[in-house]
Amino acid sequence: GLNATVSTEVEFGVCTVTCGIGIREVLLTSGCPGTEAKCIVRVEECRGPVDCGWGIPISEGLACVKMPCIYIHPENRFKYIWKMLIPNKTAHILPNDSAVMEVCRDTHSVTFQCETQENENIIASVKYTVYATTEVETKKSRRIETGQSRRKTTDAILFFCLVTGIIVTVGVIFAMIFMILHWAVVKSIWESKSGQDNQDKKMANKRSL
């Protein structure tokens, strides 16, 4: 244990969330046992802004969607209010009061909101858009078309590289075969060129002299 008479200083760790409710560590920076510079004293709750914006469903299928509220364990400590948001109208409160709600897709998109409450105070709020089945199918087909287009482009590039490599390889092989079959001619040309170069050098030396 720590000596309670020792003057202590604490600092707070980073909150695990940027909105709603999370937890953080409380660190002791003086009076830790042994040679530790810092030690954890406790873990406590921390709060961020209430509005968490748009959330990501924990499960999203073609037919139904599962959406979670913002909470920390134990989840039964809080009260959850689910609402269906209707444009230009008052939000419709749903009978569901669980931390996770599952809804099936309709013929049109619907926006839901979950408010996490404690002692009648809202501590977190998150929204979800559940797209209609037709919209999901359209997005899925677009993703497939985009993937196919990218795959075609990649295949074309690979094919071009393969053909270019084959052409270069064949050219090198033919050049080597030509040199082997006509080595005498190539050697004579090389020797004549070397002789001409030497003669040019000698002439240049004479002129310099």
UniProtKB/TrEMBL annotation:
GO terms for biological process: acrosome assembly. Keywords: Membrane, Transmembrane, Transmembrane helix. The chain crosses the membrane at residues 157-185. The keyword Transmembrane helix applies. The gene is Spaca1. InterPro entries: SPACA1 (IPR037878). This is SACA1 protein. GO terms for cellular component: acrosomal membrane. The lineage of its organism: Eukaryota, Metazoa, Chordata, Craniata, Vertebrata.
